[in-house]
């Protein structure tokens, strides 16, 4: 599960790539669900350089990102939006 601070994918994806556990590998591509983010780009700049960003078809779901590692492995990561967990706990 990923807990971004906001809906600016250019900022949040860079943070995700930079802080991704090095024991799992390094992220070289990010794919997002359309409509989830208010600011998007086709690339982000990280401490490792440029990482390409794309979007998946709407049928794949929402609140989800896929990351491809340099090893070729693809990981599906659920997104928990700010405040969403608090709302679920209150109910």
UniProtKB/TrEMBL annotation:
Domain of life: Bacteria
Annotated InterPro entries: DUF5994
Name the record gives this protein: DUF5994 family protein
């Amino acid at each position: 599960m990923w807990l971004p601070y906001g809906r600016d994918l250019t900022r949040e994806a860079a943070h995700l790539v930079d802080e991704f556990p090095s024991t799992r590998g390094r992220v070289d591509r990010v794919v997002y669900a359309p409509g989830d983010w208010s600011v998007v780009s086709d690339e982000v700049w990280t401490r490792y350089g440029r990482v390409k960003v794309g979007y998946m078809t709407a049928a794949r779901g929402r609140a989800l990102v896929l990351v491809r590692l340099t090893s070729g492995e693809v990981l599906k990561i659920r997104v928990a939006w700010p405040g969403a967990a608090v709302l679920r706990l209150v109910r």
